[in-house]
Write a structure and sequence with these properties.
The protein is an alpha/beta fold and 491 residues long. The chain has helices at residues 42-60, 87-95, 99-116, 132-145, 159-165, 176-182, 225-235, 249-264, 295-300, 312-320, 332-354, 368-377, 382-400, 408-425, 440-458, 462-474; strands at 7-10, 15-18, 26-31, 64-69, 148-151, 154-157, 198-203, 219-221, 239-245, 269-275, 278-280, 283-284, 328-330, 477-482, 485-490. It has three domains: 7-275, 3-Layer(aba) Sandwich (Rossmann fold); 286-425, Anticodon-binding domain of a subclass of class I aminoacyl-tRNA synthetases (Four Helix Bundle (Hemerythrin (Met), subunit A), Up-down Bundle), CATH 1.20.120; 438-490, no CATH class. Helices cover 44% and strands 14% of the residues. The chain has a four-stranded parallel beta sheet with strand order 4-3-9-10, sandwiched between helices. Strand 11 and strand 12 form a beta hairpin. Helix 1 packs across helix 10, helix 10 (312-320) crosses helix 11 and helix 12 (368-377) runs antiparallel to helix 13.
């Protein structure tokens, strides 16, 4: 176990706190995963990448991390979980599919996008629909505690009572008066004692095709309930980290806190973490605004707002250039800048593999690794880490171009830093040409052709040398002569 003074910004205390897990070598982490309907967009990539970084770094430090990321596949109507038409059920009805066919279709697409973005799979990925019995039992205990009531077959959480006795709104800073002034008028509000109350169980309307039996009615659980239930099932009554997007802070996570305290009599989560939003040209992403761009559209460049396609690694690098608590504003210019920056980084990584050591050294990399750890220990500060990696690339380029000399120890340090922080922790796929082991025959063929060109140059066969260089450029290769031979990359 590495001894690091890792700090995490706790959304509940609103300050950075030294990370001290419940168990010396184990960490429990729960992250709100996708609501499985509709096409995933850029905003869905940010929490996945943010908590992938947390998962990777904690694992690197030596912790055994149980990472739970839920799948919301019940639908739960709208985000208030009380009224409206369930989106999974609606699509199933219109297309004459089983609801779980709809769920599986979108879940497969989500997993494919996550794999492309090099997001590691969680330890456990529980489905809300697979934990109905546990959710019913959870509701029973909240009822026994006196913080919920039954009304016309539905069960609601008594927010005013909980607020008076335990305090509601600690995470979001909202109070009951504010809730009453912002609560929408919905059908079925007459069932509630107070408009601020939220559903733990909702009686299903006759046309609702996703429903289960319960002691109160044939119905379905409220949206907030699944996370409280499944996090406790897999991580216990207390665990270390609960994460998600900032848009979940209220009402979802606020309601989770209330439910868990009502159920257990104490707080469950030690560190609440929230990533900020992604906007497009300063505006919130939404279908009504015409700026809703799916991840598939980013990867293919098929949306009218996109000037080109952007690779998954460009998307990942673009998101990591900002701190997870800061906003990220998408524009073609910003993504093109990230693409160029990533290419510079990967150029440095490729050159590093070919560096030759000198007997003497004119570079100083003694504190580089320490500074990289300091960046990650400071609330996972990926932009500062990336700046340090660019400093490593600057040194690599100087040595590669003959403007500086590096000892074998220097080169070993640079390789360790780039492999650890660029590849392992930031999760950037940095193989030589971005293809992996199946690309080696292709790479060897290009190297062979360039070796023939080098021999032609030695023999002053300039016609052959120029023909190989010019033809490679025509078909998409950038070839650069160096003091030790050549290097190449795909344009």
């Amino acid at each position: 176990m590495r001894n690091h003074n890792l700090t995490i910004y706790n959304s509940l205390s609103r300050e950075k706190e030294t990370f001290t897990p419940l168990h010396a070598d184990k960490v429990g982490m729960y992250v709100c995963g996708p609501t499985v309907y509709g096409d995933g967009h850029l905003g869905h990539a940010r929490p996945a990448i943010t908590f992938d970084i947390v998962y990777r770094y904690l694992t690197h430090l030596g912790y055994k991390v149980r990472y739970v990321r839920n799948i919301t596949d019940v639908g739960h109507l709208e985000h208030d979980a009380d009224e409206g038409e369930d989106k999974i059920a609606k699509k199933a009805r219109l297309e004459q599919l089983e609801p779980m066919e709809v769920v599986q279709f979108y879940l497969n697409r989500y997993h494919h996008a996550m794999e492309a973005l090099n997001v590691l799979p969680p330890s456990i990925e529980p489905h809300a629909s697979g934990h109905i019995i546990e959710q019913i039992e959870y509701i029973k205990k909240i009822l026994d505690s006196g913080y919920a009531y039954i009304s016309e077959g539905s069960v609601y959480f008594d927010v005013p009572k909980f607020n008076a006795e335990r305090g509601y709104g600690r995470l979001s800073g909202r109070n009951i008066d504010e809730l009453l002034s912002t609560t929408r008028a919905l059908d079925g509000q007459q069932e509630k004692r107070n408009p601020a109350d939220f559903a733990l169980w909702k009686k299903a309307a006759p046309e609702h095709i996703m429903h289960w039996p319960s002691p109160w009615s044939e119905g379905f659980p409220g949206w907030h309930l699944e996370c409280s239930t499944m996090s406790e099932k897999y991580l216990g009554e207390q665990f270390d980290i609960h994460g998600g997007g900032m848009d979940l802070k209220f009402p979802h996570h606020e309601c989770e806190i209330a439910q868990s305290v009502a159920h257990n009599g104490h707080d469950t989560v030690r560190y609440w973490m929230h990533n900020n939003m992604i906007t497009i040209n300063g505006k919130k992403m939404g279908k009504s605004l015409g700026n809703f761009i799916t991840l598939d559209e980013f990867f293919t460049g098929s949306h009218e707002l996109l000037a080109q396609h952007y690779s998954p690694m460009t998307i990942r690098f673009f998101i990591l250039q900002a701190h997870y608590r800061g906003t990220v504003d998408f524009s073609n210019e910003a993504l093109q800048g990230a693409e160029k920056a990533l290419e510079r980084m990967l150029d440095g990584y490729r050159r590093l593999q070919q560096l030759k050591a000198s007997a003497e050294s004119t570079v100083d990399v003694s504190k580089l690794e320490e500074r990289c750890y300091d960046a990650m220990d400071d609330d996972f500060n990926t932009p500062v880490l990336i700046a340090e990696l660019f400093e490593a690339c600057r040194i690599i380029n100087q040595v590669n171009d003959g403007a500086a000399k590096a000892s074998q120890d220097d080169i070993d340090t640079l390789r360790r830093v780039m492999d650890t922080f660029l590849v392992e922790i930031l999760g950037i796929k940095a193989d030589t040409q971005g293809g992996g082991s199946d690309m080696k025959p292709f790479e060897d063929a290009v190297d062979l052709l360039l070796e023939i060109r080098s021999n032609a140059k030695k023999n002053k066969d300039w016609a052959t040398s120029d023909q190989i260089r010019d033809r490679l450029k025509e078909i998409g290769f950038d070839v650069k002569d160096t003091k030790d031979g050549f290097e190449w990359k795909l344009l």
